[in-house]
Write a structure and sequence with these properties.
- This protein has 120 residues and is α+β, with helices and mostly antiparallel strands.
- It is built from 3 helices and 3 strands; from the N terminus they run E-E-E-H-H-H.
- Strands 1-2-3 form a 3-stranded antiparallel beta sheet, with helices on one face.
- Strand 2 and strand 3 form a beta hairpin.
- Helix 2 (70-93) packs antiparallel against helix 3.
- 9% of the residues are buried.
């Protein structure tokens, strides 16, 4: 079994991030919709969602693409969070004064909030 970016093994209750994920696994793709919907979001021939037509067709298309990218965006955020946590630890070991560590901490908080919003 492959380790999670957080260093734990997902699925055994030790991964603080992946063990809380309940959504249909990706990848998700956009598809021509059915039942009078312009698009649907599909995963392994399962329909995740239907996308209603917006006033602006470009918004409808953009919304469908963004929703389909959600699992990939979540994984990218989890990876970025793991990298930033490691960077924060390196900055703590570096005793020199730097303003960068506050930015890293702020970014970690933002990523944690976004991941929590997606997984709670």
């Amino acid at each position: 079994m492959e380790k999670c970016n957080c260093g734990a093994y997902p699925g055994n209750g030790n991964c603080p991030i992946h063990d809380n994920i309940r959504h249909t696994p990706g990848p998700w793709e956009t598809s021509r919709g059915a039942q009078n919907y312009p698009f649907s979001i599909e995963s392994e021939s399962k329909t995740i969602a239907f996308i209603k037509m917006q006033t602006e067709v470009r918004h409808t298309t953009a919304n469908a693409k963004l929703i389909a990218a959600a699992p990939d965006l979540l994984e990218a955020n989890i990876s970025a969070l793991a990298c930033l946590v490691s960077l924060r630890e390196l900055l703590r070991l570096d005793k020199s004064e730097n303003d960068f560590s506050d930015e890293v901490i702020d970014c970690i908080k933002e990523l944690n909030a976004a991941i929590k919003k997606a997984t709670d």
